[in-house]
Amino acid sequence: MTVAPTTLVLVRHGESNVTVNRTIGGRRTCSGLSDLGRRQAAQLAARLESTGEFDGAALVSSDFRRAIETAELIGPAFSGSPPVIDPGFGEHDPGPDIDGMTFDEYVERYGVPDWSGDPNQVVFPGGETLAEFHLRVAGALEAVLAARPGGTVVISCHGGVVDATFRQLLRTPSSGGFELHTVNTSITEFRMVPASDGRDDTTVADTWRLIRYNDAAHLAGLPIETPRSAAVS
Questions:
Q1: Domains in the chain and their CATH numbers?
Q2: Which neighbouring-strand residues pair with 88?
Q3: Scanning 77, 107, 181, 210, which has its CA 20 to 30 A from the CA of 173?
Q4: Is the pLDDT of residue 157 over 80?
C-alpha cells in the first residue's frame, strides 16, 4: 500500500516592528508586523491563491503577534479558517528581563552572543537556552505532524524555528555547522519520504527531504527592508 507523504511548510513571518526598532521581541513585547511586513504577507497570499500550491493544508501559527498577523493575512489562500495557535512554534524566548531590550543594550550588558558553541550555555539570562528552545520546537513538530499524517501543514513561525527544524529533521549539529538567513515570508518546504518495504528502493526508514528553502519569489518589487530611521512602536 502506498503511503502518502507528509509535507511540512514553514513560512517566516513578515518584517516585524521589533526588527525595524532593533529590539529583542519575545512574545511579551512583540507588536506585530511593520507596514512592509503586511505588504510582504499580502503578496505571499496573492501568490498562494494564484498557484494553489498548498490547497487543503492545515494552517498553524506561533503565538507571537507577528506570526499570527502573517497567518491571518495568508489564511484566505487556505480554508479561510483562523489559524491554530501553537506556542510551541514561538521564537527563542529571551526571558522577561531581556524581552523588549534593544540589541545595543543587550550587547553592552552581555556582549555579542555566540550561537555556535554549547547549546546549553546561558545566552539569555532568565530565558531559554538553545537546547531548551530546540527541545520545545521538536516537541511541537512531533505533535503537529502526528496529528496530520499524509497531509500538508503550513506553519507561520520564525527564523529560529526554521533553523531548529533544519537541525531536527535533517539531523545536523544542534549548533554551529552552518548559518541560515531566512527571508521574511519565505517558504521552506520539507517532505517525508515514507519507508519502503525494501522491494522497490533502499529507503528502509522514514526520511525527510528538503524540497526548497527561502523561496521568496513573491517579494519581487518590494523594498528589502524598512529604513531604520522609519522605526515605529
A1: 7-221 (3.40.50.1240)
A2: none
A3: 107
A4: yes
What are 233's three cell numbers? Answer: 512602536
50-90: pLDDT as tens digits: 999 999 899 999 999 999 999 999 999 987 778 999 999 99
| Burial category of 211 from C-beta neighbours within 10 Å (exposed 0-12, middle 13-18, buried 19 and up) | middle
Is 171 in contact with 156 (CB distance < 8 Å)? Answer: no
**Number of C-beta neighbours around residue 112 at 10 A:** 7
* DSSP H or E stretch at residue 214: strand 207-215
DSSP letter for each residue of 147-204: TSTTSEEEEEE-HHHHHHHHHHHTT--SSSS----PPTT-EEEEEEE----SSSSS--
Phi, psi of 153 (to 5 degrees): -120, 130
Residue 96's φ and ψ, nearest 5 degrees, are -65, -30
State which amino acid sits at residue 96.
P
User: Mind listing the pLDDT tens digit for each residue in 86-125?
Assistant: 999 999 999 999 999 999 999 999 999 888 889 999 999 9
- What the block records as the C-alpha cell of 142 is 512531533
Helix axes 130-146, 159-169, angle to 10 degrees: 70
CB-based contacts of 104: which residues, under 8 Å, 6+ apart? 22
All cell numbers assigned to 10: 514553514
